Amino acid sequence: MRISRLAELDDNSIISADIVIVGAGPAGLTIAEQCSGPDRKVLVVESGEELETSEHSALNEVENIGELQTEAQIHKRTKFHGSQARFWSPDVQRYGVRCRAFGGSTHAWAGKSAPFDELDFKARSWVPHSGWPMDYQHIIPYLLRAMDVLNLSPKQPPGRFDKEGLHSFYWQFARSRIDRLDIMRFGQEFLARRPANLHVLLDATVRCVGLNREGSKFSHIDVVSLGGKCARINATFCVLACGGIENARLLLASNDVCSKGIGNHFDVVGRYLMDHIAARVGRFQTDQIAELTKHFGFYGLHHEKRAHMFAHGLAPTPEVQERDQVLNAAVFFSTERAPDDPWVALKKLLNSRSSDLGRDLLSVVSGSGFIARGIGMKILSDTRTPKIIKDFFVNGAILLSPNLVAEEFQSRGLPHKLSGLRIEAICEQAPDPSSRITLSDRKDRFGVPLAKIDWRIGDLERKTLLRIAELSHQALAGAELPTPILESWTRDRPQDLVIIDMAHTLGTTRMATDRTKGVVDPDCRVHGVDNLYVAGGSVFPTSGHANPTLMILALAMRLADHLNLKVVRNSAYQTS
Q1: What would the CATH number be for the domain defined by 2-338+417-575?
Q2: In this predicted structure, which of 124-138, 294-308, 348-362 has the lowest mean pLDDT?
Q3: What residue stretches are annotated with the Glucose-methanol-choline oxidoreductase C-terminal domain (predicted)?
Q4: Domain boundaries, the chain
Q5: Start-end of H helices in 211-356
Q6: Looking at the whole model, is its pTM more than 0.70?
Q7: CA-to-CA separations, 313 to 35, 121, 268, 427, 460, in angstroms, rounded
């Protein structure tokens, strides 16, 4: 793999490639590696550097005219997203969380992965605009390949709950192959593996996508560095894999040939903007944690000499969704840190930020066991600790005590004192054409209009969250398990919910066989443009409730297979 920077090239350089991929996130890098070959030039173009920088992150600015504007939403977004991405700011990213760097969203994600349900692919009479142009069975082989990329087990833990129309649902965590105590970071994985026959161009922000005069074929992309160096990249095929916001923005802003934007003859680009809708359902008392974590804690599973970690939640059956006319959803259980957590107290003392010196000293002394355990975890994460020792201890710990390991994964190796358990709900968002991305009158430093976000949340999402809260309480009671103290909004006041985006931007270049209803066809090719493709969650017709990365990679695998066939046929045509 060869890595270069646009700033190192001559100004106004002309670069040629067989396939150019815009975006070095999970989708873009997966397609690049699957399509690479000794007689083929695959070029990945990334706006950022290996790591995030403040200057590149400033290019993520959006204008927001929809949700997320109340004081409560802004506060909740800052608390929820603020610790995920190093340079994220609610003033710049007023919607979404984007990481403009090599590895993309995996700089900020939690590694949480799950496949979509079979029902997610079907047209549902109670969910407008639902249905995929493919079925679940078709996608299964690609899901299995995507699981291998994400270091996931294809085996699932056994179902352990079935009550009141709720059944077991499992999320799995994508573990790093490099750092045994971290989740997978695509940038680090690629830099360590350095797959052959790949070219990566960093600090190269795309200003526009070029078509031929008829608008029927992709011809080039124009890129610029932060320092102002420009280049044109000509390629036989192009894949836009730069996220749900940027994919739509680039298509809309590239309007020199098609005045409404590429693929936008029927005003569909940017529409059907979706995210996942989440809310806290309730909480349990401290003395109930042990019993509930036996049922709904983390689960270790051994597969092919590796231990894999799952989180156990509950989801409504397809029959309940149809009966109650609700969206797909799930609940999961999340621990709360105690106010006298020793690691928090130690951090305050070391940074001279303690407001109560005596209390924080007492917390550190009384929590010395937690701190000692944390030091042990830091030793395991040290690069000087032999790999065989790390694997032995981490894999063994996952199988013997997955809840302990999960807490340390989430806290980056620092075990915390817990004070309670929350039950959280997450649901899909119904596709809505009025929820959309358009172009702002404001422009970025390169003259490209900002994305204007008009994200809308409907009544069906609130109804779904309310119903799954009720079902969860009934199901736990029916199983003679502790029931949560429900939040006040569940008492028939879903309008009181403070809803924020979950950084799962989906749907803005949706897939459809009918070009009047979608931006790309079932092969992810932009309708009407022979050699331009889109990858990522923006092509999803519906969002499911599961975290989208696994499905994104499954579709990326599928697109890579399609591109490989197209490249071979194109080469054969040229030599004949």
Answers
A1: 3.50.50.60
A2: 348-362
A3: 431-556
A4: 2-338+417-575
A5: 243-253, 289-296, 318-324, 342-350
A6: yes
A7: 37, 21, 35, 13, 22
